[in-house]
Amino acid sequence: MIAGLDYDLFACIADLGSISAAADKLGISVPMASKRLARLEARLGTRLINRSTRRLALTGAGQQFRDDVVAILNAIQTAEERLVGATRLLSGPIRVSAPTSFGRMHVAPYLKPFLDAHPQVDLELNLTDDLVDLLALGIDVAVRIAEVPGRIAEVPVSGAGPAPGICLLAPNRRILCAAPGYLAHHGTPAALKDLAQHRTLAAQGQSPWRLSGPDGPVTVDPRSIVRTNSSEVVRELAIAGMGIALRSLWDVNADLAAGRLVRVLDAWQGLTDVHIHAAFLPSPSQPRRVTAFIDYLRQLFQPVPPWE
Questions:
Q1: How far apart are CA 26 and CA 19, in angstroms?
Q2: Mind listing the domains of the chain with CATH numbers?
């Protein structure tokens, strides 16, 4: 029994790249985790992990042992699930991070069916436009809107933790739009070069605009009439008639349908290399509640996202 617990601890340390993170996940103290790891290495007569003040790294023997241990633990889990029918029962915590506006509009309203189906899941949703540290903050799933490869690959993890895995959720189509009142007062641009004579709106970090159209890819550097770090503020400024904005369809779909915004320069849109993804720490022993939640998000937005 003790050996089994030590194997579980070792696999957890290997996956998270941190003794303290593994101890926190398993609900034991860091000294106890260190003592159990040392006991396992003493029993096996070999060092499994090289430790330093800044990081942990598996030895060659540790890597091979980790692969064998994970296979054993997965086999045990599969056997237990067959016996008790646990494949239908999800329980435990899921910590989710999502961009503020997207999470409010397209994640939070759809949590109820998932939680109704899995009442023993304890779900936490944190909304932020920052790139969160998955390992340091204990985030299981981070929804990100970015390029691949690109900013999505920059989702940070602490120490020697693994690079995040990526699951495509939906495309992110972006269009140029403005309020009818703005266009009535300032005119409608007929060509891309006309943007230089118009007021534009962009949040910090969302310029320059990279567009594609009849002339191929083009970069436009908008000088936003209002400086803000909030995409939601940009949308509200556009609706108020302050200028032309490049917005995602998931963000302004309802405003376009209601006539609060209209498309301009229909032949142009944002480059199609930006998508909506779920980032997560890859692990052979990923809890089924986490993979089930990622699958649920994917079903919400595929094959055609609701804003399309």
A1: 11
A2: 2-84 (1.10.10.10), 89-170+276-301 (3.40.190.10), 174-270 (3.40.190.290)
Angle value at C-alpha 11, between 284 and 133, nearest 5 degrees: 75
What are the tens digits of pLDDT across the range 79-128? Answer: 666 665 555 678 889 999 999 999 999 999 999 999 999 999 999 999 99
Neighbour tally for 58: CB within 10 Å: 20
3-class secondary structure, 110 = helix
Q: Say yes or no to pLDDT of 4 above 90.
A: no
**Cα 278 off chain centre by:** 4
In this prediction, residue 257 carries a pLDDT of 95
SS3 168: strand
Q: Give percent of the chain with pLDDT exceeding 70.
A: 88
CA 121 to chain centre: 19
State the angle between helix axes of 19-26 and 2-16 in degrees (0 to 180), rounded to the nearest 10.
130
Q: What is the pTM of this model?
A: 0.68
Highest mean pLDDT among 35-44, 76-85, 184-193 belongs to: 184-193
Question: Which tokens go with 287?
Answer: 């809890």
The first and second tokens of residue 170, run together, are 């939906």
**Which amino acid would we find at residue 300?**
L
CA–CA separation, 76 and 79 (whole Å):
5
d(CA 198, CA 285): 54
Tokens for 269, please give them.
């849109």
Say what the pLDDT of residue 202 is.
Answer: 94
CA 220, 225, 228: angle at the middle one, nearest 5? 95
Separation in Å, CA 178 to CA 193, 197, 208: 16, 14, 18
